[in-house]
UniProtKB/TrEMBL annotation:
Xref: PROSITE patterns: HTH_LYSR
InterPro entries: HTH-type_LysR_regulators (IPR050950), LysR_HTH_N (IPR000847), LysR_subst-bd (IPR005119), WH-like_DNA-bd_sf (IPR036388), WH_DNA-bd_sf (IPR036390)
Sequence similarity: Belongs to the LysR transcriptional regulatory family.
Keyword terms, alphabetized: DNA-binding, Transcription, Transcription regulation
Gene Ontology molecular function terms on file: DNA binding; DNA-binding transcription factor activity
Transcription regulation in keyword set: yes
Protein name: Transcriptional regulator, LysR family
HTH lysR-type domain ranges (all copies): 1-58
Pfam families with a match to the protein in the record: HTH_1, LysR_substrate
Recorded GO CC terms: cytosol
Gene3D superfamilies tied to this protein: Periplasmic binding protein-like II, Winged helix-like DNA-binding domain superfamily/Winged helix DNA-binding domain
Length: 310
């Protein structure tokens, strides 16, 4: 089994046809067909099912694709690492970042990292930890910065705590419930949910209502993009639970304010997450170091946004 065969198979799987895969790989369609046929013969299973519209993965192909992508990604990382150890200053760092840490940490981290590594491409993917774990597991993402659930995550990942992600209920300053002090007062309101799950980070408001034995709030919109949430909350009848650190600055400038809720609200730990069984490339490791340094710097500020209010 050759690396080029895996790359051929991945190209066909991702593009949906032999012809499109061949174009992506810059080889002829017959050559690509031969490569995949040899791979299927070696594995003794059919990886693809040919149809009039192209190809689809067999159940063997779906299972093999996960392994193939991981192998191809690790091979690329190994090549990058050798180049970087020899002094090359290029490469790719791919980071998953939830909304809070993306706005709080990444601007300063990127500024310093770009000065040191101007030829390194940094790719930032939004979203929450569930989607990040899939990308980390597949080897296509170097690290993620995200709040994690209280029960933690799978042991195949290293999870370094960075800071506590306290929650606040946010609304437009002209929302009719702007002065509510109890969650009970918010029963029946429409909410923007920032995650796809029903528990943990991204669904903190659901956990809060459960903890206070209240009927679950009505979810009107699911959205994990802070800029879009900011626009949605211009509707004077929507509420959202967001990290406390996001409220000053951009959200306040958009007329959004935290409600003075006195009930205890969920808090999750924002962590740096990466695979435990695969070392980062040198440039990715340096990016992670910059993240840790930024958290340390913010923690030392007299008015630190990471320090919980008294």
């Amino acid at each position: 089994m050759r690396l080029s065969q895996l790359q051929d198979f991945i190209a066909v799987a991702e593009h949906g046809s032999i012809r499109a895969g061949a174009r992506a790989r810059e080889v002829s369609a017959p050559a690509l067909t031969k490569s995949i046929r040899q791979l299927e013969e070696e594995l003794h299973v059919p990886l693809l099912t040919r149809t009039t519209r192209g190809v689809v993965l067999s159940r063997y192909g779906e299972a093999f694709l996960r392994r193939a992508r991981l192998i191809a990604t690790e091979a690329r990382k190994a090549s990058d690492e050798m180049s970087q150890m020899l002094g090359a200053r290029n490469g790719v760092v791919r980071v998953g970042a939830a909304g809070g840490p993306a706005h709080l940490l990444l601007p300063a981290v990127l500024t310093r990292f770009r000065v040191q590594h101007p030829d390194v491409l940094v790719c930032i993917d939004s979203g929450g930890y569930p989607s990040h774990l899939d990308e980390l597991r597949a080897g296509v993402m170097d690290m993620a910065v995200s709040p994690v659930p209280d029960e933690g995550i799978e042991r195949e990942f290293t999870c370094e705590p960075l800071y506590n992600n306290d929650s606040v209920v946010v609304a437009h300053r002209e929302h009719p419930l702007r002065h509510a002090r109890r969650l009970r007062e918010l029963i029946g309101s429409d909410w923007v949910l920032t995650g796809q799950r029903m528990h943990g980070p991204g669904a903190a408001i659901l956990d809060a209502f459960r903890a206070h034995d209240l009927p679950l709030p009505r979810v009107a919109v699911r959205c994990d993009t802070i800029g879009m949430i900011q626009s949605l909350l211009q509707d004077r009848h929507l509420l959202c639970m967001l990290p406390r650190q996001l409220v000053p600055g951009q959200l306040a400038a958009a007329g959004l304010v935290p409600l003075p809720i006195e009930d205890q609200l969920p808090s999750h730990t924002v962590s740096l997450i990466y695979r435990a069984d695969s070392p980062m490339t040198p440039v990715a490791a340096q990016f992670a170091t910059q993240l840790r340094r930024e958290v340390h710097y913010l923690t030392q500020l007299p008015d630190s946004p990471l320090r919980r209010p008294a």
